[in-house]
Automatic annotation (TrEMBL):
Entry keywords, A to Z: Transferase
Residues in N-acetyltransferase domain copies: 20-166
A GO term, aspect molecular function: protein N-terminal-serine acetyltransferase activity
Protein known as: Ribosomal-protein-serine acetyltransferase
InterPro entries: Acyl_CoA_acyltransferase, GNAT_dom, Ribosomal_N-acetyltransferase
Record-linked PANTHER family: RIBOSOMAL N-ACETYLTRANSFERASE YDAF-RELATED (PTHR43441:SF12), RIBOSOMAL-PROTEIN-SERINE ACETYLTRANSFERASE (PTHR43441)
One protein family per Pfam: Acetyltransf_3
Species per Swiss-Prot/TrEMBL record: Pedobacter nyackensis
GO cellular component labels: cytoplasm
Top-level taxonomic group: Bacteria
Classification lineage: Bacteria, Pseudomonadati, Bacteroidota, Sphingobacteriia, Sphingobacteriales
């Protein structure tokens, strides 16, 4: 599955063919990404990404997540997905990361918009959450820009390296999204 954002940006369903490019994107930006993402240190080889992608594909088949590689002019620059899919309660959480060189161009906001539309439209979700570290202003700016409601702070909710990070919890309901985008 592919979601076209514009003439330069598209989302491709995460697949094993992306392993090499994902590894290089992370490896080239390791210091930047590891500040807020706990899994970066574990991704030390292409084989690590292959194993991770196999897990992503398994979770997709089980309807537990759907994740995409972000392509900018045919280059992998990040990932985005709906994680922790709970179809019983019709909710999920968006997770994302972007290479430092691709930041500041509105790419992630447009990708989030597409994933939100997919979640509410195709999957029939009722609620989508985004969590961002309290110290990650760039990541928080995205749900704020998209009109998500800040619901609170999850104290020491994620271990990154040797430090527990507080996370700001944002949420959007389907009716709110439809009212804001129609």
């Amino acid at each position: 599955m592919t979601i076209i954002i514009d003439q330069h940006i598209k989302l491709e369903l995460t697949a094993e063919r992306h392993a090499v490019d994902l590894f290089h994107a992370v490896d080239d930006d390791r210091a930047h990404l590891s500040e807020f993402l706990p899994w970066v240190e574990a991704m030390q080889s292409v084989d690590d990404f292959k194993a991770y992608i196999q897990n992503c594909e398994s979770m997709h088949h089980q309807k537990m997540e759907v994740s995409f590689v972000i392509m900018l002019d045919e280059q992998v620059v990040g990932r985005i997905g709906l994680h922790y899919l709970n179809m019983g309660n019709r909710n999920a959480a968006i997770g994302y990361w972007l290479s430092k060189d691709a930041e500041g161009k509105g790419i992630m906001t447009r990708c989030c918009t597409a994933v939100i539309n997919y979640g509410f439209g195709e999957l029939g979700l009722q609620r989508i959450e985004i969590k961002a570290a309290t110290t990650n202003a760039k990541s928080q700016a995205i749900p704020r820009r998209l009109g998500f409601q800040q619901e609170g702070v999850l104290r020491q909710a994620e271990l990154v390296g040797e430090k527990f990070l507080d996370l700001v919890l944002f949420a959007m309901l389907k009716d709110e999204w439809l009212a804001a985008t129609t």
